[in-house]
Design goal:
The complex is a heterodimer of chains A (356) and B (509). Chain A is an all-alpha fold and 356 residues long. Helices cover 74% and strands 0% of the residues of chain A. With 509 residues, chain B is of the alpha/beta class. The longest helix of chain B has 16 residues.
Chain lengths: 356, 509
């Protein structure tokens, strides 16, 4: 499978090489972005400064950036887990929606004591995400169905399913396509009085550290890493490759569901149709830019969060549309993946490589 | 003297490492000139310089008597050079003719003239006795035929000097013999062949002149008639290496591995094992001889749990192991050195420590309560580097930074210390330097002396004759017969490897 080879190549490069390569890619992307901004008759400097101000201008703006970062980070970690085990979970968006809905449902349909209520809602969000990916995961390990395709397709079903739930089964009286609000006992605790930034961020950071430690220091994490990087070697060594592949996808989906739970319980306090556009995909991209490293994903997720938060000020202070950040994001993705594809001219043996 | 190629004073450095150190090489027109040396001796670098893939730091290149700058393969091809690489560069989805003319398609009215390409291929194929079907797709052809296509590619570009890099590494003995005949006919036609190898037998079999490289330097250039195998080894390795039969004392114990009427299929669902039966006792080395692809790999895979058996029985210390997982069979005491070490035997991108942890990641002392104690793993790896003389800087080196022979030692080190008392060893020295081969053979003999039961699969008869107590010959998925390792009759084994039952031969005569 080509994506597996692609990632082996990606992991095999030295860290320093990767970092310089990515810094260069970012620089090229920003330069191209500047050209596009010039084409819409805006000053690139003004746009970038406004973005920076919108993302980090004062404590409230920083909190806003972190609020956007949280779901991207958790989704990114979900992606990292799958990548380490040699799997691609492109269905995080769908797991996020179903997890978000499941948490909201527990939040408004039941009345429970405060801490227990949050735990129950989160648990169901995790289960929902895991169950949703269990279907493509089963087909992957049983019949070898490409999980990239099946998890992408599962996204559409998941988002439309939650729309159906929201519009036809649990709609709040009134205009919006959203569920009734959750009880305050199910709110995630907020970190500051001036922002909806909540402990979801801490959950994300703890997950990043925990997942890194799991892959580094546990037997199961070692086995999963080996299945990801050398499946035939792992099989030969006695690792049950199918079971590990299934497990890795299941946990990845569970974390995707968790991201949805954090978003509904922490930010919106209800489930809204189309409540979290693109967080799942942004998370996957953040994970890819970080080479599948959860710790690295903290920084790439922060970058994407800052772009999202900064773009809010962009439309107020400049004539540029906030869509410009989508363009910049796309350019970065292109530049970074182009760097990966570049042939290595001459390695230590001095032989030229002609293969791409 | 009419020289086809004359390299003089070629030096090539990569950083502090000198790959070629003022090398002189004179190849006469119309000869087969072998360049022999261990891995890393500088053979491939030298040929890449000649072919324009690398530029020398010093020295000059003359082709056909004219000194010139060869700064790209295009120049080399223009001067009549052709290179057949060790790893074929063919497009599987295209036909034989399409592959041969890839990049120099015969065109008519701007479109590819397939009929003309097929016709040209047919003419070339007949002229040089390299039989191919021009319209067949490359996918699914045997490596022997793939190599023929590579040679035809070179001939289609009008090469008069042909460089072959380790051409027989992937061939069966029969295919090698065909290749040698072809090379001979090229020379009879006035062409020149440069032939890179580290395989002694074939160098002795086919070449006119031999140049031996060691550590980037030419240690000798001699006509083949002035050399013998023992001398060649000494020139290559720099010391005497013996591949005589290893001395041994009888050490046989109880039956450890018992296989009866075993059947299995290969990846293409064809029957690969046909009623295989064998026993291996503790303290005994049983060799499996045979041309590659006669079921040896499938046998190893079935016994280690990586491939299902169709029927039959296999017992490890009296316990059935068919239908068991690889992990269960390992825990029963089977260690397996796989034939395809780069794919099965190691994760090339992981550290040496991560590579020896495989199979014992849940076992003490390497892991406790599901947590890996990396300090212990690194210490164990350091000890193995010492004991097996692995050339590595330390346990955190990635496996890919090691040479093939040292990677093989890592695999052997892991499997020999896994605690198993039955060793399944598939191609222990394939692609391994001669010096390292000797060390690996020593280690296998030590395992025998320790009372391990060893099933040794090898395509190299010399290796089996040096090590095995008994040799079984496989052909087309069957065990054709057994011979005593001490009194090997090459002819009898050769017949069995070709599928002829020696008993029938005697009855017939």
């Amino acid at each position: 499978m080509t994506n597996r080879l692609f990632f082996r190549e990606l992991f095999s490069k030295g860290l320093a090489r990767t970092l310089t390569g990515q810094a260069l890619a970012f620089a090229i992307a920003l330069a191209l972005g500047a050209v596009i901004i010039l084409m819409i008759d805006e000053s690139p400097v003004a746009v970038f400064l406004t973005l920076m101000r919108g993302a980090f201008g004062d404590t409230e703006k920083i909190a806003g950036t972190l609020l956007q970062t949280t779901p991207i980070l958790i989704c990114g970690i979900a992606a990292c887990i799958a990548l380490r085990g040699g799997m691609f979970n492109v269905g995080i968006e769908g797991q996020l929606f179903l997890g978000g809905f499941a948490a909201a449902w527990v939040g408004f349909a039941f009345s429970l004591p405060p801490v227990l209520h949050v735990l129950a809602a989160m648990t169901l969000a995790v289960i929902a995400g895991a169950l949703w990916i269990a279907i493509p995961a089963f087909f992957r390990v049983r019949f070898g169905t490409n999980e990239v395709v099946s998890t992408i397709l599962a996204n559409y079903i998941a988002t439309l399913l939650t729309s159906y739930f929201t519009i036809f089964l649990f709609k709040r009286p009134g205009g919006w396509s959203e569920t009734p609000p959750i009880l305050t006992s199910a709110y995630l605790p907020e970190l500051f009085s001036f922002s909806r930034l909540n402990i979801g961020l801490l959950i994300g950071l703890a997950l990043a550290v925990g997942v890194t430690a799991f892959f580094r220091w546990t037997s199961a994490g070692y086995a999963a890493t080996m299945v990801g990087s050398a499946p035939k070697f792992a099989e030969y060594g006695g690792v049950n490759v199918r079971r590990v592949g299934f497990g890795v996808l299941l946990v990845s989906g569970a974390v995707g569901g968790l991201a949805g739970g954090v978003e509904t319980l922490g930010v919106h306090h209800r489930f809204m149709e189309g409540f979290a556009p693109g967080f799942g995909f942004d998370g996957l991209i953040a994970a890819l830019l970080a080479n599948g490293s959860p710790i690295g994903t903290i920084f790439t997720a922060l970058f994407f969060g800052a772009l999202r938060a900064g773009s809010l000020l962009l439309e107020v202070d400049t004539t540029a549309s906030r869509e410009i950040i989508t363009v910049i994001q796309a350019l970065i993705i292109l530049a970074v993946s182009a760097d990966l594809m570049m042939p290595r001219r001459g390695d230590r043996t001095g032989e030229r490589r002609w293969k791409f | 003297m009419d020289l086809a190629v004359d390299l003089s004073g070629i030096t090539k450095r990569f950083g502090a490492f000198t790959a070629n150190d003022s090398i002189d090489l004179a190849v006469r027109r119309g000869e087969i000139h072998a360049i022999i040396g261990e891995n890393g001796a500088g053979k491939t670098t030298l040929m890449n310089i000649l072919f324009g893939l690398l530029q020398p730091d010093e020295g000059t290149i003359s082709i056909g008597g004219r000194t010139m700058l060869v700064d790209s393969p295009a120049v080399a091809i223009h001067e009549g050079l052709g290179m057949v690489h060790q790893h074929f560069k063919l497009v599987p989805s295209l036909t034989v003719a399409d592959n041969i003319f890839l990049g120099m398609e015969i065109r008519r009215n701007g479109l590819i003239d397939r009929a003309a390409q097929v016709e040209r291929t047919r003419v070339l194929s007949e002229k040089f006795g390299l039989r191919v079907d021009p319209q067949e797709r490359v996918a699914g052809l045997s490596v022997g035929i793939e190599q023929r296509i590579e040679i035809l590619k070179v001939l289609a570009r009008n090469a008069r000097i042909i460089i072959l890099d380790e051409p027989t590494a992937v061939l069966t003995p029969q295919e090698s013999r065909d290749l040698f005949q072809t090379l001979r006919s090229f020379v009879d036609d006035g062409m020149t062949v440069i032939f890179i190898s580290h395989h002694l037998e074939e160098v002795m079999a086919v070449s006119d002149t031999v140049t031996v490289l060691r550590d980037g330097r030419v240690v000798a250039t001699k006509p083949k008639s002035a050399l013998n195998k023992r001398e060649l080894v000494r020139l290559m390795v720099g010391r005497d290496v013996s591949f005589d039969r290893r001395p041994r004392t009888p050490n046989e114990g109880t039956v450890a591995l018992d296989v009866t009427d075993l059947w299995a299929r290969d990846d293409r669902r064809l029957t690969a094992l046909k009623s295989v039966g064998l026993t291996v006792r503790a303290g005994e080395i049983v060799g499996i001889a045979g041309v590659a692809g006669n079921g040896q790999t499938e046998l190893a895979e079935v016994l280690s749990g990586l491939r299902p058996a169709s029927r039959g029985r296999a017992q490890l210390h009296g316990h059935d192991i068919l239908d068991r997982t690889p992990a269960e069979i390992r825990n029963r005491g089977l260690a397996h050195v796989p034939g395809d070490r780069m794919v099965r035997g190691v994760d090339r991108n992981a550290s040496l420590s991560a590579n020896i942890l495989m199979g014992r990641q849940t076992k003490r002392p390497f892991s406790r309560l599901g947590l890996i104690d990396w300090t212990t793993v690194h210490d164990a790896m350091r000890a193995l580097i010492q004991r097996f003389d692995i050339r590595a800087r330390g346990p955190k080196d990635p496996a890919r930074s090691l040479s093939g022979g040292n990677i093989q030692k890592v695999v052997l080190a892991r499997e020999f210390t896994a605690g198993g008392d039955v060793l399944l060893i598939d191609q222990p020295t394939r692609g391994v330097d001669i010096g390292a081969q000797e060390a690996i053979h020593d280690e296998i003999m030590r395992q025998r002396a320790d009372g391990r039961a060893i099933l040794l699969i090898s395509t190299q008869l010399d290796e089996l004759k040096a090590l095995a107590d008994r040799i079984l010959v496989m052909f087309d998925g069957r065990i054709m017969g057994a011979v005593d390792g001490a009194v090997v009759d090459d002819d009898a084994i050769g017949l069995m490897m070709a599928g002829i039952d020696p008993a029938e031969m005697t009855e017939a005569s």
